[in-house]
Specification:
By secondary structure, this protein is mostly helical. The chain is built from three helices and no strands.
Amino acid sequence: MILRWLALYPKGGADWFALSDWPWLLALAERLETRRAVQVAVLAEGLGPTPLSAPIYANPPEGVAT
């Protein structure tokens, strides 16, 4: 989840971090996204199709993700 936070926060000011600068870490994030347990959590939290490798702000299906 820290990969998400690095890419998304602070809102409007996360340009300093690019996961593509760390190819081995990007590959790990992409592999994790294919795991069933991660996919279930991602769907429940509304984290989008690439929650670790190219995150977007959460859009939970119900309620809020807090």
